[in-house]
User: Fold this.
Amino acid sequence: MQPFIRFATKDDAPAIIGLIQGLANFEKASDQVVITADDLVRDGFGTNPKFWCYVAEIPGEIETEIVGMALFYPRYSTWKGPTIHLEDLMVQEEFRGQGVGTALYRSVLTFARERKVRRVNWEVLDWNTPAIEFYVKSGAEILKHWHVVSMDDQALEAYLES
Amino acid sequence: MQPFIRFATKDDAPAIIGLIQGLANFEKASDQVVITADDLVRDGFGTNPKFWCYVAEIPGEIETEIVGMALFYPRYSTWKGPTIHLEDLMVQEEFRGQGVGTALYRSVLTFARERKVRRVNWEVLDWNTPAIEFYVKSGAEILKHWHVVSMDDQALEAYLES
Assistant:
């Protein structure tokens, strides 16, 4: 069944949080999600939204169900200018293998093409082989020589006070 | 000599482009920089700037010289909410080892603390050992299991037309 892809609205925030938590569980980081549906509403659906989000809907027996989402936002490359970053692409486990992820992926890339950005970036876990194969087959490049570096607020506070 | 750190203005764009190109050369990607000083002015110093930038100045014999810069912008984590991404941190080769990079780094982290973000991210090349050691010593974490993925506009076009 073809999923219907549309921009998320604030009413989708609880479903999106569910998908975010599902992806964090899959990435073995289930305790890392601290944001709430209220945070998403404030940050993504007010004036000056900090991200965009597509959701994938499939008609269920009783009501239409959100089975996947792609959350993305602008970044800036000092080499290429404006770019798009795909933060999360997630499909509920029981709806995988039906083209939902591909439909979301194509939607984000189409959005990027319309914006005429020179690059789309995202990150993938090194053990997530199916995702890596999908991305490579689509023409994306895995930049194995670049490491992601992260400093959380506690480390930042400790460093600045040192 | 202590560098003076201040926010960049549009008049700094040519100096910033010089530093961007210098960093790309160091990263063995000298042909990758396609943006110009005009692009930087439009993207960073108009309404709704796409990035922020600090520059480091040192008084020279004739005039004050810009010897380093840090360019950064907001991102959004589906786990942590708003974050800051440090895109480039660069000090002219002949001014390294004098605390300029540390002063720029602390400025960006202080900015992040004032914004109360829960995380600051950036990327580093795996062979850039001095940078990695500096970051780890400061309390940042190198996320070795995450790969950066990139799709340029040509690959994107080819995929969407397939």
